[in-house]
Amino acid sequence: MKPPQKRRVSLARVKLQSNTVFRMNILFFTIFLLFSVLILRLGFLQIVKGEDYARAIARTEEVPVNTSVPRGRIFDSEGRIQVDNTPVNAITYTAMQTTKREEMLTVAKELATLIEKDDDKVTLRDKQDFYIQLNTESASEKVTDEEKAAIAAEDITEPEKQRKLDALVREKITDEELASISAEELEVLAIYREMTSGYALAPQMIKNEDVTDEEFARVSERLTDPNLKGVNTVTDWKRVKSSDLTILGSTTTPETGIPANKLDYYLARDYSRNDRVGTSFLEQQYEEVLQGQKSVVKNVTDGKGSVIETVPVDEGQAGKDLVLSIDSELQSELEKIVEDKLIQLKAGPSSKLVKDAYLVMMDPQTGEVLSMVGKRLGEDEDGKQVINDYAFGSFTASHEMGSTVKGATLLTGYSEGAVELDEVQIDEPLKFAGTAQKNSIFNTQLFNRIPMSDVMAIERSSNVYMFKIAMEIAGAEYQYNRGLYVAPESFDVMRNSFAQFGLGVKTGIDLPNEATGYLGGTSPGAKLLDLAIGQFDTYTPLQLAQYISTIANDGYRMEPHVVKEIRAASRDGESLGPIETIVEPKILNRINNTQEEIDQVQTGMRNVYIGSSGSARAQFSDAPYTAAGKTGTAEVYFYEKDHEMNGQYAINIAHVGYAPYDNPEIAYAVVIPYVTTDPENVPRANNEIARAAADKYFELKNKEADSASNLIKEPYSDSIVVEGE
Fold first, then answer.
1. Cα(377)–Cα(355) distance, rounded to whole angstroms?
2. How far is CA 612 from the centre of its chain?
3. Sign of CA pseudo-dihedral 320, 324, 325, 328
4. What residue stretches are annotated with the Penicillin-binding protein transpeptidase domain (predicted)?
5. Is 403 marked active-site?
6. DSSP codes, 563-612
7. For the chain (length 725 residues), average pLDDT per consecutive 10?
8. How far apart are the first and last CA of the chain?
9. Are 168 and 147 in contact (CB under 8 A)?
């Protein structure tokens, strides 16, 4: 019997209610689990990861911005300013991360009404892009649908397609259309291009040259104007040299910024694209010292990328100062000596090739370079003769130095057992098969025999004595009119020995791009004899100065340097800052000779100045101080492509010396390449410059010393060389 209908409905309801309760329990339990997971996750994020996310937020909202500090200054050995920073008014622009090009253009238009900006740096590409921005629709219509379709069909990336399309638009802009850009619009463009040249939140220099007080004031008054958002007025610096001495180096300007070939190098070291960097010589060599530590501020931005607060983080430090070993007064006086002699030589006969002259003076005991003079004759735009500074040529240009190297040859002979102390050789003209006669200048008659000691060989500058040393080193025996075979290893023996003096190798000076000179090879054999008298390999004037310094201080080769101190920036602007680094004397090596052998060469060099046959007796015999040295003459050929006198025979002259003889304070080298094309009338300008330079050193040394030596002094010279000019 079936249950009544009401009972069946009641059972169904009970069953449904039971299922509903079960499902609701499952739902509530699931919700409970989800909330539990959510609470656990929030707790994990808040407690475990909270600090990490806070730092991440800080990184995205607080953006570091580096601002420049004054570059370190350069002083001479007496505290005279050589390179300084001059403050100038400047106007900058800083774009936000969300700043659009249209907004920047609006600011540029407004700024153009307040300042004057030259458009000489505006390029054709700048004009084309500016025209497109001003005439977007009409410029785009210049490219046909067919041309657009052809580019779209190419198998290249989308960015490459866009670049090709943009290039096609630029090509179709006519000269007439570009000429329609008004002078006022060009000024806006000149400002706009500076604004767009850098990164967001990195200040860009809009104008820092010839900013008038009126321009500075007008912009300063309107810094809160929304139409000048991002514009600021600041104090910038210009690099000013009080000397045209080229080894001081040069820097880029904010307009030129970091050189393209070193962009990655400097950007990796937190430089900005428009930072000044050293590009040559001391400014380049000591870039990390001079640059200083930038001040750092953080621009706190809101969610839209707008700066809401600027927070100082690090005040930064001005660049450190360099104190040179060069006395600018001595440098200036020696430059006058070289300039006057160079002009005098150029006015003389057979002097068409002479254009350079060098004088390097250093302390042989410490390696400090006291003066580095290089002068080159040239012409200005009107064809008038001018003299340019060419001091860097003293370590980048090399020449045959003639008999000045004979001290190294004799000492090599001693160390290699090719000659003994006081050994006498016969000076006689030598004749080898296939070559011209080789002889000393004072003995040209074949079969004329003159006994010659080692000391006399230096005094009289005997070529033959040096030839015989070279042949003994090579194990070669002289026979009249026979060939001369020399093993290539003999050249290595000579050159390795010369390198102990600094000849043919880098001196180690603290300046970039030093040359080593030219090695002439290992054949034919007779060239070994030329090497022995300085007429084969080439050396720089600085190498010559290091060589004579090595002999002067009893065989120790010192590393030359032009910076003697690194100091912190001045605290009061009146006295030099505290010393941070003193450049200590550095011995590179000692030559492989006994003291007796070095004394023998020193005696020979002393006789060059005072001996009856000394080649510099006329200039030095009456000197009020004791000195020693060696003169040099080299027969050379002038080579310069497309020059009318290419291949012309000429004469180089050189001179090395030191004083005082017993306790040397200075060593000096003089070099004048291609001084004449007449070998019968060789001027003695090398000796005259050497004597005048030594006289000037001792004259200035005897002046009363300045008791306030730590005070910053005015430049000795009136010359002014401004950055970028």
1. 5
2. 47
3. negative
4. 358-676
5. yes
6. EEEEEPPPSSSSBPPPEEEE----EEEE-S--HHHHHHHHHHHHHHHHST
7. 57 64 77 80 70 55 64 95 92 85 91 92 89 86 88 89 88 90 91 83 83 93 90 88 94 86 87 87 96 75 62 79 97 97 96 97 98 95 92 97 98 98 97 92 93 98 97 94 92 97 97 94 87 97 98 98 96 92 97 98 98 96 97 95 92 98 97 97 97 97 68 88 73
8. 120
9. yes
Rounded distance, CA 170 to CA 164, Å? Answer: 10
CB 104 within 8 A of CB 334: no
Q: Shortest CA distance to 595 belongs to which of 655, 552, 554?
A: 554
Contact criterion met (CB below 8 Å) for 587 and 367: no
Chain centre to alpha carbon of residue 403: 33
Q: How far is CA 167 from the centre of its chain?
A: 38
pLDDT at site 335:
98
**pTM recorded for the entire structure:** 0.83
Phi, psi values for residue 292, rounded to 5°: 80, 180
Q: How far is CA 688 from the centre of its chain?
A: 32
Q: Are 722 and 90 in contact (CB under 8 A)?
A: no
pLDDT recorded at residue 45: 67
Cα(47)–Cα(41) distance, rounded to whole angstroms?
Answer: 10
Q: What is the pLDDT of residue 720?
A: 84
Cα angle for residues 607, 611, 614 (degrees, 5° grid): 80
Contacts of residue 597, Cβ cutoff 8 Å, sequence gap at least 6: 411, 414, 415, 421
Catalytic residue among 272, 403, 415, 497: 403
Angstrom distances, CA of residue 373 to CA of 391, 654, 670, 672, 709: 5, 14, 9, 12, 25
Output the CA–CA distances (angstroms, integers) from residue 71 to 198, 286, 319, 373, in the order listed.
Answer: 21, 11, 5, 26
